[in-house]
């Protein structure tokens, strides 16, 4: 028997947004600035006790190219924790190449919206736990709408119904990024995260808006998500993962220390 969902350790996941071989970070998906060497950062996070690492090649889809395999291999060599990779994955062969380069899971976003069967194909080929569907959402005219190509393109899909469909097709996990909160450091979109989490049976990773340790406590307490992901607060050393886990533990949130 598995542990009830609320007993499982909550995961802390640093995210490396990579462009031209460097880690970058912006606000609301624009104004990118340099945040360091992805290989060095990955090694640092593994040592600090991160539970997983996500690597997103953020311009791969927009620039219509594949994720940088060599860099993925270099990062994977630094890690002893699960490693998720996204960016430019459009077919099984792409996923296979990343698996061989050291990925434990892959994250698909634009390609899944354009061809939802891809979720099903990947889940059948590699197993449900391997497929993370990333969703970039923005509040437009009173509704949460799915955006593609690193947030550059609005779709006609409502976020809640797309996530439900992704789960039905075989997504093992949802990585939900609020574009309105991204990089603002004003906190996660707990209302939306709770609403979606209450309606699906697969894990949800909260992304967009982390600015303080309290924000992590809040997203676990209010939305009961399975994991929280952040970038700049970790990259620039504003929050250290061991400190964050101690703080969560003090607030009775189960974490792996």
TrEMBL record:
The active site is at 17, 136. The keyword Kinase does not apply. One of its GO terms (cellular component) is cytoplasm. InterPro entries: Aldolase_TIM, His_biosynth, HisF, IGPS_HisA/HisF, RibuloseP-bd_barrel. Gene3D superfamilies: Aldolase class I. GO terms for molecular function: imidazoleglycerol-phosphate synthase activity; lyase activity. The keyword DNA-binding does not apply. It catalyses: 5-[(5-phospho-1-deoxy-D-ribulos-1-ylimino)methylamino]-1-(5-phospho-beta-D-ribosyl)imidazole-4-carboxamide + L-glutamine = D-erythro-1-(imidazol-4-yl)glycerol 3-phosphate + 5-amino-1-(5-phospho-beta-D-ribosyl)imidazole-4-carboxamide + L-glutamate + H(+). Pathway: Amino-acid biosynthesis; L-histidine biosynthesis; L-histidine from 5-phospho-alpha-D-ribose 1-diphosphate: step 5/9. It is found in: Cytoplasm. Keywords: Amino-acid biosynthesis, Cytoplasm, Histidine biosynthesis, Lyase. Its EC number is 4.3.2.10. One of its GO terms (biological process) is L-histidine biosynthetic process. SUPFAM superfamilies: Ribulose-phoshate binding barrel. Heterodimer of HisH and HisF. PANTHER family: IMIDAZOLE GLYCEROL PHOSPHATE SYNTHASE HISHF, IMIDAZOLE GLYCEROL PHOSPHATE SYNTHASE SUBUNIT HISF/H IGP SYNTHASE SUBUNIT HISF/H. Belongs to the HisA/HisF family. IGPS catalyzes the conversion of PRFAR and glutamine to IGP, AICAR and glutamate. The HisF subunit catalyzes the cyclization activity that produces IGP and AICAR from PRFAR using the ammonia provided by the HisH subunit. This is Imidazole glycerol phosphate synthase subunit HisF. The gene is hisF.
